[in-house]
């Protein structure tokens, strides 16, 4: 529940509204295409997990098959990926709260800051509280989509009006068809749809940490494609059938748009509360993940040691504080450019997600070559049609970067700013490497006579180059 819940966030609950308004019903095609490549990435990660289950996640496999420098880059990239997502999440909460008139006079940046403070406090209390809160957050998100689908299908098949519109194919055929704005808008919104699949890799890594990974992994990954079709594509298709695409707007969750028109008192308010929960859930999971990623990197010598400190409740507060400072930048963006804050965060996150997915695809290719050289036997659960599917996925990821850059000025500046940041992190390895080597020697002395379980990453602190 928590794994699939972590992959459902503001990209669907908020982003789908503006994308549907821009591209029309054809948006479900974009969700299906991005979902297909997300499935291939999961299969690539799944094969590596079956080779060696690891609690180190995607950084662990980058280290094993791409080298320590690549793992160093991916570790900081993964941190930024979730930290910048926090900017999108706090922005989403602020926008959702504006649905209620009582918050109209409250500046957007203040609402974003309050949401950040609340979730940081949840994370600082302890792991047990996080697990309990995130389980229910995830449950509410999945349940909300299921309720939306069931309710939407009921309106479609019974023909009951919604906001003066009769649900059905007529909302598509009478409003320009599947491509009312042409094919170009569909391509443009793909970078935003891509953002909606952030966190999907957690499904594979979580399955790899179960007691029976060999059995759970294939089932978990293969079931993802059906979850994608139902939860993502199904939701968008139902939205298009319930109301004309022009009824949706980027400033409001499409789920709230629908339920505020069904004629049932306060249904829009209830759904708005649920989508706020979804955004807080994503922010909650992001802080949890980045706190532990930074702690691992600090122990490996890839980040300052101070960031690896734990508080008395076992919470890596150093990493959480660093993540919170990045999200505070988002609060400033909400102050300076409240109308563009979400798009800025979405574009920046999409770039980091391209790096994460691309690294996993290349890592699987390296793994396959090692297996072909006889270094080990490939697992039976494999990346389908590799290496052709790998190259196809890499081409798609390159297309996403092009679409981000060509979408608008914000997207172009996102790419321009990202390049020097990536280069700085890549070349900073030269100064970090001695620290990592020192940590490696300490690690080797400590574990010389220690058994390392199969699901732990013995290379967490070990450079390979």
TrEMBL record:
Biological process annotations from GO: amino acid transport; transmembrane transport
Alphabetic keyword roster: Amino-acid transport, Cell membrane, Membrane, Transmembrane, Transmembrane helix, Transport
Under the heading InterPro entries, the entry gives:
AA-permease/SLC12A_dom, Amino_acid_permease_CS
Give the UniProt entry's GO cellular component terms.
plasma membrane
Topology of the protein relative to the lipid bilayer: Multi-pass membrane protein
Give one Pfam family.
Answer: AA_permease
PROSITE patterns documented for this protein: AMINO_ACID_PERMEASE_1
UniProt domain Amino acid permease/ SLC12A: residue ranges: 1-431
Give its localization. Answer: Cell membrane
TM helices/strands, residue ranges: 28-45, 78-97, 109-130, 142-163, 183-204, 224-245, 270-294, 315-338, 344-364, 385-404, 410-432
Grouped into one coarse class, the protein's main location is: membrane
Entry's family note: Belongs to the amino acid-polyamine-organocation (APC) superfamily. Amino acid transporter (AAT) (TC 2.A.3.1) family.
- What is the designated name of this protein? Amino acid permease
